[in-house]
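[job 4471] stage=fold_predict status=RUNNING
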Amino acid sequence: MEILEKAKILISALPYFREFYKKIMVIKYGGHAMVDPSLKQNFAQDIALMKYVGICPVIVHGGGPQINQVMERMGLKPVFIEGQRVTDEETMNVVEMVLVGTVNKNIVSLLNRAGVKAVGLSGRDGELIVAEKMKVYKYRGEDRPPEIIDIGRVGKVKEVNPQVLFTLIEKDFIPVIAPVGIGPDGEAYNINADLVAGALAVALKAEKLVYLSDVEGVKDEKGNLISTLTIKDIDRLIETGIAKGGMIPKLKSAKKALAGGVKKVHIIDGRVPHSLIIELFTDEGLGTQVVFTEQ
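[job 4471] inference complete, writing C-alpha cells
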C-alpha cells in the first residue's frame, strides 16, 4: 500500500508537470531558507526536481543578514532609512563582495551538488539589470514638502536586458542572480531583491514569480492568512497599513509583475520543508497566491 500511495502522489502531480513544462519560473530565494542547512538542502532538491520535470527556474537571491554580519566584523554600522540600506561607496563594496562573491557562489555550489547546472551572475553581467538612483522621500507634514534623502548607491530597476538569461536557459543552465545593478557610468547599485525578481519575471515572460519568505503569506487585519489576493487588493493592504515591512516591496513587485504579463505570483513560507514543491505540484498549496483578477 505504501508503494501504491507513492505512485498516486506522482500521478497527482502529472497535470502540473504537463502545464509547466518548458515554462520559466522566477524564484526569489531569501530568509531562513538561505540560512538553515536542512532548508538549504530542501531548496536545492526542489529546484533540481523542477528542472528535471522540464521547468526552467531562474533564481534571484537576497543576503541582507550576511551583509550586516560582514559589515559589523569590519567595524561598519549598517544604517537604514525608510527601510532602505544607506549605501555609500564603502558599503557598496561590501554589498557586492558578499552578494556576488560569497552568497551567490554558495547557492551555485549548492545547486551543482544537487545535480543541476547553475551559473552565478549579477545585474552587471551583460548589463542584465540597468539601474537608476532611487530617491527616498520622508514625510514632514501636510504643510511642508517631503524631504529628499540621499541614501547613496541604492537603485531601482530602469531596464532589463535578458538575452544572457535566455542563452543560459537554452543551454540547460539555471541562472542565479545577485541583485546588484549597473548605473549609467558603470558603477554598481544595490537593489531590493524583491523588485529585481519582479522585473526579471516580466522581462522573461515568466509563468510564475515565487517569493520564499519567513512568513506564512499575506495576512488580513485579523492576522488570518489570505489564500488568494487580486491585484486590486494590494493598494488597499498597503494604504491601510495591513501590509508592513518587507511585505510591501513584495506586493508592489507582484502588482507590477502581474500587470506586465506574469500569470501568477506566490508568496510562500520558506521555513516549510519543500514549500516550493507543495505550492507548485499539489492541489492544496500553501501561502498566498496573487492573481490579476478574480478567478
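[job 4471] summary: The longest strand covers residues 154-160.
[job 4471] exit 0
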